[in-house]
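Sample pair:
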Amino acid sequence: MEYRIFGPGRSPDDDFKGDLAAFLALNEKQRDAVAEWFLTTDSYDSWAPKLPPGIVASPLLPEQFRRAAGFIRPLLLRWQEYGLELADIERDLLLLGCAPEELAILTDFLARVSPVKGRVWTGGCKDFESLLGLPTVDDVNIVCDARPVFGGLAYDETAAENGVSYRKFVGFIHLVIMEIIASDNYGQKQRTAIQMTEETFRRFMDGMKRASEQLDILKERTNVIDPDA
């Protein structure tokens, strides 16, 4: 049996069936909140650390939102990618054993959010391209440190021979430690940590601000991907 929404030769797995059941278990207000997010968001990353304000104010639990969005997004993406009609999706859902009332809930929802299926597909293409090539940043941790300064180093033998200056407490210096955790498209993680003086950190922040301005200019001068091209 061939399903059109899963691609040539592919069929639904248990995860899809479980996510379908979880979506159908949502009430109308919860589904409305998910639909509004799809229609208004600039990014379809439902796993962003900060939940969208509309979702926070909705009757959805975070795990309900993420599971529902994670179920609907691939449907919209495949709908666009494979050039399907809504009737194709209805057919597949019938083959999966959806009852008429369940089918009506899902198809009505998909018809409501169908205007953004092109943007969802484009976003998926961008996400894929952003993972290719060099490792990508998973997380950045920045820690401020006050490091004690002594008159000599503990492992410097000459300091010990010349007296007890290594025991003399001079004061503190202030440092910023930045840890970058990245992974490649094979899932291998890399951890890099660097330390900066306050002056270096200020220069770094100024440079990041200028880079942000350049990125804004670049976005203004380049064309946006057209999902219908």
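The chain has two domains: 14-130, 140-221.
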